[in-house]
Structures are given as C-alpha cells and as structure tokens.
Amino acid sequence: MDVVVCLKQVVDPELPVRDFAVDPGTQRQVREGRPLVISTYDENALEVALQLKDASGAKVKVLTLGPAAAVSEAIRLALAMGADEAIVVDDPRAPELSGAEKACTLAAAIRRIGSADLILTGCESADWAERVVAPLLAEDLGAACVTFVSRVEAGDGAPVVRRLVEDGYHLVEVRLPAVLSVTSDESNRPRLPKVKDIMAAKRKPVQTWSPADLTRSSARDPGAGVEVRGVVVPERTSRCEFLTGEPAEQVTALAQRLRDQKLL
C-alpha cells in the first residue's frame, strides 16, 4: 500500500501570546523569527501512516507545500519518525494560500507522484483550522473521503477506519483511493525518533518541485469567491475588585456580585 501524508508547518501553537502578531498586508500570522513545527493533527496523521507501515509494510511518503528552506526541519523530522521519502512543493506564497488553493496544489502533486492508495491529512490545521483541505483534495482526485479518523487497519483489500463521532465511533470500510483526515487519539500519539533514525533520515530522498512543475486538473481558480477581509488578535480586558470588611461581610458581598452578574 502506498500512503501519502500531507504535512503543514505552522508557527508553534505553544508560542506565548505576546509573540503572536498578524501581518496587516497579507492578513496572515507573522512567521519570521517564530519557531515552526508540524501542525498538530498532521503529526497524528503521520503516526497513523507509520502504524500501517509497521503492520503491513506500507510505503509512506510525506508531501508538504511551502518555502523549501522553511520546511526543511519538518521534513527531516518526518523522515526521522519513519517516512520513506519526502516531496516539497517549493512555493513561497504557500502561507498566504487559502485551503482550497492548497488542496488544488496538493492534488496536482499527488497526481505527479502517480501512486497513492491512501492520502492522510490532519483534520484541521493548527493555525487556520478551515477543515476543508481533505474534502476538497478528495473531490479533486475523485477519491473517497472519511473525516475525523483515529485509526486505520489495512484489512483484506479494503482498509477499515475508525471515525470518531460525538457518542462513540463508526467503523467504515473504505474503497481506495481514499483521503482520510485524522484527529488525535490515544492510539496515534506521535512517536519520538531515536538518534539512529535521525541520522538515517539524512540519507533518505527528498524531492523538490516548483508549482510550475505541476499540472492542475482544471482551469478554474480555486481561490475564487474567497476573500479574507481582516484578521485581528482579540483584545482581552480584565478588572480586579477587592472586597473589604470582615470575612463574613466579604462572602456576602461576593455572593451578591455573582447574583448581579447572573452567575448564581
């Protein structure tokens, strides 16, 4: 089985709030000078792919879209975790693209790869959280699509996936090729690469393509109809009030404040 995992590199979600900023020109998060990491759910998707490799010998390729220099560390980490090879679509505009535009480019890259039974993505990115890439990617490729997948079993011919729902999970048999969006689960926590795996990753193949190397499925503009009007950092205000008097008086005053705020 050939598995392609689509990875996105984002500004570290653990970054302190004071370091978060929006570029007023691009209406995107400022990335320069901030640590970049693989988007959280994409790591879970990679772990699911690697579990398939461990269980059934699947071949795992990772595919990412972004400035080649900026994504190199993410690619090396993915290879160290166990991916067999990597493809980078070197597009400096990648951080500014909409989810539909990214799906269109990723689909073109997967067609150039030529062989993909399963395409895995995170269920949402850690920055924009649009949740549209997997369904649009499946539509462009003419593939089946299952969202919010936590586990995949190779099965006998058709994989069986566990799809999380509000009150439990569904078991879904999937026809190939298929696009799966993966969510986090106890069973797919990303593995930590060993030192020998990190060293071995340096010898694994990494191909770099430009957007001009790819052939899109149609002439339609995937960004048509989508316009980002503005992105702002929410302003948070706080107010502190000290209650005076004896403890019993403070308790009475606090209870009254809570009633006034309709919190009691």
What does this structure look like?
The protein has 264 residues and is an alpha/beta fold. The protein has a single domain, classed as 3-Layer(aba) Sandwich (Rossmann fold), CATH 3.40.50. The protein contains six helices and 13 strands. Strands 11-10-9-12-8-1-6-7-13 form a nine-stranded mixed sheet, sandwiched between helices. Strands 2-5 form a two-stranded antiparallel sheet. A two-stranded antiparallel ribbon has the order 3-4. α3 crosses α4. The model has no long low-confidence stretch (mean pLDDT 88).
Tally of distinct domains: 1
* CATH architecture descriptor name: 3-Layer(aba) Sandwich
CATH topology: Rossmann fold
> Helical element count?
6
Secondary-structure element string = EEEEEHEHEHEHEEEEHEH
Low-confidence stretches: none
Q: Strand sequence of the main sheet, in spatial order?
A: 11-10-9-12-8-1-6-7-13
- What class do helices, strands and sheet pairing give? alpha/beta
- Got a strand count? 13
CATH superfamily: HUPs
Averaged pLDDT = 88
What kind of sheet is the major sheet? 9 strands, mixed
Which short descriptors sum up this protein?
264 residues, Rossmann fold, two-stranded antiparallel sheet
